[in-house]
Structure formats: structure tokens, C-alpha cells
Amino acid sequence: MHFASSGDPVLDRRYGRAKAALEDGDPQAAVEILDQTVAQAYHFTAAWHLYGAADHDRDPHRRHLRRQACTRQIQAAMPPRRSC
User: What is the mean pLDDT of residues 43-72?
Assistant: First the structure.
């Protein structure tokens, strides 16, 4: 289990609500919550990371492009197949 903390219990609860919203499939709500969170705790890197993931997931086309790019990177990193 990973625990992220800003050092402020109120902001930590906001982060938890944003994470739950993203896990429940509502990236727009997560972004709205995180907008407030990162404005008050600019140093909260876990919130910035979650913000990026939520922002990216708001657009299904961008999500699809990200998956395609990851697949290409994995395929490029794999050794070529040998035929026997």
C-alpha cells in the first residue's frame, strides 16, 4: 500500500477523494478536486501525478493514443522473434 501526504490532513483527504473519483471512472471530478489541492500544496507531487492521469483520462481519444504509444514502446523494446 502506498500512502501520499501533503503534510496537511485536509489536503490529504481531498487527494483521497480525487483518487476515489478517478478509480470510479470520473476523471473530471478528480481534476476539479485536484485543481484546489495543488493550488494550496504546490509541492504535493503525488497530487500532480494523479492530476496528470486524471486530465489525460478526460479525453478518450488521448487515452487511446497513450495506449497505442505504450504498445509501440513495448514492442520496440522486445527482442525480435526468431523463426526456427
Answer: 82
